[in-house]
């Protein structure tokens, strides 16, 4: 652990922001406040933050349908994200994208994506730019997207072109409602990645420090011109595939158990307080600040300007 | 003015734009060719001869030979275009759009809109298309009818060397994604090409012939067929007003409606099958906006509702032809209201 106190607090704040953002959405969606499909990221915070704490605005990431965590971790504005999810014209995408399409090129966030597996090829293209800039491109995918042909094409092309692309596979063990044990035919996602001819490692996705250290190694490796790499992060999804999912595929007591034993925020707090790197009170203060931020984000989003019918035809093209 | 073939115009235009703009890259299968093979790179230079010499001139970081992975080609070009590059992706045959449709339809076409207008995707997807080579059902098709239906894409179909230069230059410099369709049977067509910087804005049809009796709308290889038919019809005193639409999205509605209001008759020639097609779209446009001008029902000469067949006799029967256009024109001229 080589992180400064400021860096540790920042990492915790990012993870806590994602957690409270998602828990609040869970409540608001149940009240019928939010339209459309929403896929919550809670449980996987250490993955997004452990990766993105290494990145700057000219490093690129592309995300998935479960994208809120990646957006927050990469620096998208939380207030504008909340407005987007509420469909406001002041949202990050002017109410045109919603939960599944939040993007902000200014922070190198190339979009959440509603099509499972569509992101990896786009990350390869961002890798072409990253190669010329000396930065890296990250493709977040899940154990569902790892079975898409687009992901295979992207992995092979990144190897052939020797691009600085890191394929981050967050293995939450469910592709929608189907278990990883059934749907991933290979011995493991890591073994499959290695078969493409790239460096492939695993890390503990519920431990921020495990993800952070492993990513440091991979980013150095890619920036040194060695081509792409892959990492499989073992993690947990605290909610269903989508909000409203009855989760009948879960085992008895599974949700209680993973929340109790495999919570990355609890893991972080225990580690840093036991090692006396941070005081519990410091973390409590962050909790209070983040709670206030999310309260304000929701309150503002509910009051924010709505789009008008005239907005439908805006931004289809730059010129036509 | 120089006399050039369309294939050379395409190559030379890409060359000029790559020289002009360091951010422009190009990706595709065998656009270099020979990589990893005993013959060595540049053994091919693109199977259509549209990228010869570019790899040697601009290097492997800008002229990127890819595996046969159409989704990754379009995705990679799109990712580069989102992050500050300009990109040209070549899909070797337009028919292969089937294996990369998600990247074109759900990604490239929608980025700007679903990201709230905060991004550009300056990407040209070049696709050789069309029948005439007995290349059978999976290597002979037109696809403009699909991509024209997709908001967010611009669609270009040049039919002359000069238009190929002006429209490709515009496509590369455009900040919106452009589908640039090159008819395989027209690559060898020669014609005069303006020297120097030459840009044709999208959405402007080209007046091919002027006439007062029938408006003929066409694109790509159908333009030449319509010209042949018009020459024959002129001998019988029938004047054809041929418009080469050049871009199907955006569409030059004004030129179409002006012409039909003058001639009162409309004949649409389209290489696509007739159902839910570009021809039916044009027909609906004129029926809605110039109905009062029509002296006869709108007619269409199109491919039939079948895959493109292989055998010479079958493919000839399948394609529109100058004779079919003449027959349709004669029918239109002899129409009398009951």
TrEMBL record, chain A:
<dbReference type="InterPro" id="IPR029061">
    <property type="entry name" value="THDP-binding"/>
</dbReference>
<dbReference type="InterPro" id="IPR001017">
    <property type="entry name" value="DH_E1"/>
</dbReference>
<comment type="function">
    <text>The pyruvate dehydrogenase complex catalyzes the overall conversion of pyruvate to acetyl-CoA and CO(2). It contains multiple copies of three enzymatic components: pyruvate dehydrogenase (E1), dihydrolipoamide acetyltransferase (E2) and lipoamide dehydrogenase (E3).</text>
</comment>
<protein>
    <submittedName>
        <fullName>Thiamine pyrophosphate-dependent dehydrogenase E1 component subunit alpha</fullName>
    </submittedName>
</protein>
<keyword id="KW-0786">Thiamine pyrophosphate</keyword>
<dbReference type="Pfam" id="PF00676">
    <property type="entry name" value="E1_dh"/>
</dbReference>
<dbReference type="InterPro" id="IPR050642">
    <property type="entry name" value="PDH_E1_Alpha_Subunit"/>
</dbReference>
<feature type="domain" description="Dehydrogenase E1 component">
    <location>
        <begin position="13"/>
        <end position="309"/>
    </location>
</feature>
<dbReference type="GO" id="GO:0004739">
    <property type="term" value="F:pyruvate dehydrogenase (acetyl-transferring) activity"/>
</dbReference>
<dbReference type="GO" id="GO:0006086">
    <property type="term" value="P:pyruvate decarboxylation to acetyl-CoA"/>
</dbReference>
<keyword id="KW-0560">Oxidoreductase</keyword>
From TrEMBL, chain B:
<dbReference type="GO" id="GO:0016491">
    <property type="term" value="F:oxidoreductase activity"/>
</dbReference>
<dbReference type="InterPro" id="IPR033248">
    <property type="entry name" value="Transketolase_C"/>
</dbReference>
<dbReference type="InterPro" id="IPR029061">
    <property type="entry name" value="THDP-binding"/>
</dbReference>
<feature type="domain" description="Transketolase-like pyrimidine-binding">
    <location>
        <begin position="4"/>
        <end position="189"/>
    </location>
</feature>
<dbReference type="Pfam" id="PF02779">
    <property type="entry name" value="Transket_pyr"/>
</dbReference>
<dbReference type="Pfam" id="PF02780">
    <property type="entry name" value="Transketolase_C"/>
</dbReference>
<dbReference type="InterPro" id="IPR009014">
    <property type="entry name" value="Transketo_C/PFOR_II"/>
</dbReference>
<dbReference type="InterPro" id="IPR005475">
    <property type="entry name" value="Transketolase-like_Pyr-bd"/>
</dbReference>
<protein>
    <submittedName>
        <fullName>Alpha-ketoacid dehydrogenase subunit beta</fullName>
    </submittedName>
</protein>
<keyword id="KW-0560">Oxidoreductase</keyword>
């Amino acid at each position: 652990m080589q992180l400064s106190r400021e860096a540790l607090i920042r990492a915790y704040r990012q993870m806590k922001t994602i957690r409270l953002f998602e828990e609040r959405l869970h409540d608001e969606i149940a009240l019928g406040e939010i339209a459309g499909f929403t896929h919550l990221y809670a449980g996987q915070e250490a993955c997004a933050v452990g990766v993105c704490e290494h990145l700057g605005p000219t490093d690129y990431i592309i995300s998935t349908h479960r994208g809120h965590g990646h957006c927050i971790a990469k620096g998208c504005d939380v207030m504008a994200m909340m407005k987007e999810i509420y469909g406001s014209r002041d949202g990050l995408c002017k109410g045109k994208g919603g939960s599944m399409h939040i993007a902000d090129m200014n922070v190198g966030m190339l979009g959440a994506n509603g099509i499972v597996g569509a992101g990896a090829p786009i990350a390869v293209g961002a890798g072409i730019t990253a190669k010329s800039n000396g930065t890296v491109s990250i493709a977040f995918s899940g154990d569902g997207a790892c079975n898409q042909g687009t992901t295979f094409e992207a992995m092979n092309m990144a190897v052939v072109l020797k691009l600085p692309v890191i394929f981050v596979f967050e293995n939450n063990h469910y592709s929608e409602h189907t278990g990883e044990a059934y749907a991933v035919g290979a011995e493991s996602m890591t073994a499959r990645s290695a078969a493409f001819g790239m460096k492939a490692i695993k890390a503990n996705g519920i431990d921020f420090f495990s993800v952070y250290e492993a990513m440091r190694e991979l980013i150095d490796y890619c920036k040194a011109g060695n081509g792409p790499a892959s990492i499989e992060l073992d993690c947990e999804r605290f909610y269903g595939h989508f909000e409203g999912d009855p989760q009948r595929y879960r085992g008895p007591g599974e949700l209680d158990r993973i929340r109790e034993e495999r919570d990355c925020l609890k893991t972080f707090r225990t580690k840093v307080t036991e090692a006396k790197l941070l005081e519990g009170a410091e973390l409590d203060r962050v909790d209070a600040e983040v709670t206030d931020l999310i309260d304000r984000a929701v309150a503002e989003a509910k009051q924010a300007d709505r789009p008008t019918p005239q907005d439908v035809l805006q931004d289809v093209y730059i010129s036509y | 003015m120089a006399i050039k073939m369309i294939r050379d115009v395409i190559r030379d235009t890409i060359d000029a734009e790559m020289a002009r703009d360091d951010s422009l890259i190009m990706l595709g299968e065998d656009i270099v060719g020979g990589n990893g093979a005993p013959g060595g790179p540049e053994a091919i230079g693109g199977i259509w001869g549209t990228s010869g010499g570019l790899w040697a001139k601009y290097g492997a970081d800008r002229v990127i030979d890819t595996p046969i992975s159409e989704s990754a080609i379009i995705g990679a070009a799109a990712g580069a275009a989102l992050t500050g590059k300009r990109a040209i992706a070549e899909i070797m045959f337009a028919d292969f759009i089937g294996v990369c449709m998600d990247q074109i339809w759900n990604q490239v076409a929608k980025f700007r809109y679903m990201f709230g207008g905060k991004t550009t995707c300056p990407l040209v997807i070049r696709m050789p298309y069309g029948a005439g080579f007995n290349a059978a059902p999976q290597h002979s098709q037109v696809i403009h009818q699909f991509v024209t239906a997709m908001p967010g894409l611009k669609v270009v179909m040049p039919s002359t060397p000069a238009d190929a230069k002006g429209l490709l230059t515009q496509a590369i410099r455009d900040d919106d994604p452009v589908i640039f369709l090159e008819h395989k049977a027209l690559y060898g067509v020669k014609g005069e090409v303006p020297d120097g910087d030459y840009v044709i804005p999208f959405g402007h049809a080209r007046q091919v012939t002027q006439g007062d009796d029938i408006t003929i709308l066409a694109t790509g290889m159908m333009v030449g067929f319509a010209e042949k038919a018009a020459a024959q019809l002129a001998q019988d005193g029938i004047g054809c007003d041929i418009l080469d639409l050049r871009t199907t999205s955006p569409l030059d509605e004004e030129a179409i409606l002006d012409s039909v209001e003058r001639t009162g008759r409309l004949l649409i020639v389209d290489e696509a099958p007739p159902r839910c097609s570009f021809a039916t779209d044009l027909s609906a446009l004129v029926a809605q906006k110039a109905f009062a001008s029509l002296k006869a029902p709108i007619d269409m000469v199109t491919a039939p509702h079948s895959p493109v067949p292989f055998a010479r006799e079958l493919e000839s029967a399948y394609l529109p032809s100058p004779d079919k256009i003449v027959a349709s024109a004669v029918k239109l001229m002899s129409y009398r209201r009951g």
